[in-house]
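Note to self: the last two entries modelled the partners one at a time, which told us nothing about the interface. This time every component goes in together.
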Amino acid sequence: MLAPTAMLITIIVVAVALVSVMIIKPSITVTRGGKILAFVSIFIFPAFSETMGFNEHMERSKKTEFCTSCHVMQDYGKSLLIDDPSHIPAAHFQNNRVPRDQACYTCHTDYTMFSGAKAKLRGLNHVYAQYFGQIPDKIELYKPYNNRECLHCHGGARNFEEGATHTLEEGRLELIKSNQLSCMSTGCHDACHTVKDLGSKTFRTGIPATVDSTGSESAQPAKEEK
Amino acid sequence: MTAQPTKLERRLRRSGLLVAIGLIAELISLLWNHPTAFLLFLGVGVLLTTTGILFYFYSLVSANEPSREAGSPRTQDL
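The predicted structure of the combined assembly is written out below.
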């Protein structure tokens, strides 16, 4: 267990113990010490626990295993292990181009102001759909994938700026940068989360099980492909 | 013979109960690694804890209101 989580749990346990004293013997508030104890146990500790707990849940929701813990997302998580260098999510995940423990969040959060909060609100909507709504047969993005998210890392990189395909025609690079030509256009980097074909794919083994909902971490990290 | 709890004490006890239940819900949500845990944290933990805190403050500000009940002299002490 992570140290901050353990610390937070300890604080909550202490807070519950202090509040229990207030519940059992509220008459101690007649003394000055009792008043301070009441203030600390009913306001300071709980308010701190709420703030820290909220932050902890926010951080936890960025984890790959968090996203793939829902049944509908498990195939998408599995697609990160496809043994095919042209499959964009798998190539990014297996080559550490994105942090493995935050693979989904890294690519599927807009790099704009309040994007994190928007992603969380959408996540709440997904949880609602999971239990009370209708899960669509085909999972689609809310809007076409923006090149901005790719360029957050690849923009300015030599293999992007000088890539033969990117500079094949004059002005193509500008079209890509301005999102007028999608990186995922047909014939370019269009192999993304092809979950329909998972049955015919082979999968890379020996990768940390961050995409495994069982939480097992027995596997060793894959080595960087050359 | 045990003295009857004053109105303030009863309110403190209620607010303490709300906070305690809320904190336990938060604790469970932190130990449960699932997306639903966030709903438990927000929908039960934060809701009950915040209600308990607000009720605690209400108890304090209304402590000096004249008590309608007889035999609660300790209210004046607070």
